[in-house]
Amino acid sequence: MPTNKRESLIFTFIMCFAMVLWMSIYNVALHQGALTMGAVAQAWLGFPVAYVFAMCADWFVAVPLAKGFAFRFLVTPGKSSPLAMTLAVSSCMVVPMVIIMSLFGAVEVASQTGEFAAIPFMWISNIPTNFIMALPWNLLVAGPVSRFVFRRAFPVGTVLA
After folding, report:
1. pTM for this model (two decimals)
2. What is the 8-class DSSP label of residue 155?
3. Which backbone phi and psi does 99 adopt, to 5 degrees?
């Protein structure tokens, strides 16, 4: 886990990249009905805007909520194991990010199709399908890979506070 604010920001850049890219591909494939190269290309084209939005949502909304909940109800810094703290915060991050990014996706689809009245229905119906993918992807793939890449690029003590 990152040990200071600067490390947290760098780690968030890496983790957000892994989550937003995969979830974009997943959602475009769901919308098109199949995972094709066209779906990957469309997801890649929409990725920059989604990435910037997700970074802002993550840093300013999801992180404070997730850490606040995890450290108040699930784990105690200094007493809980690093693995327990990582799993608690990572799991708690998924909930607000899925809610926020599902709304982002619904607005994005509505802006392309012109069906703005359908935004609430799309948003609510996207939350469960996104949660089903985001939680395991975060805990089993994106999180471990991001932590590995982060610590390989920035060994402990190399990023100053």
Report:
1. 0.94
2. -
3. -65, -50
Rg (CA), the chain: 16
- Tokens describing residue 154: 């920035």
Domain boundaries, the chain: 5-153
User: How large is the average pLDDT for residues 114-118?
Assistant: 97
Residue type for position 159? V
- Residue 38 in contact with residue 73, Cβ under 8 Å? no
Report residue 114 as tokens.
């012109």
CA distances from 31 to 21, 92, 114, 122, 128 (A): 15, 26, 15, 11, 15
Q: Cα separation of 47 and 20, whole Å? A: 7
Would you give the DSSP letter of residue 154?
Answer: S
d(CA 80, CA 90): 15
Q: Would you give the distance in Å from CA 64 to the centre of its chain? A: 14
Q: How far is residue 93's CA from residue 122's CA, in Å, rounded to a whole number?
A: 22
Nearest-angstrom CA–CA distance, 60 and 134:
19
The whole-angstrom separation of Cα 133 and Cα 154 is 29
- Is residue 18 within 8 Å of residue 144, measured between CB atoms? no
pLDDT tops 90 at residue 156: no
Token pair listed for 47: 């990725």
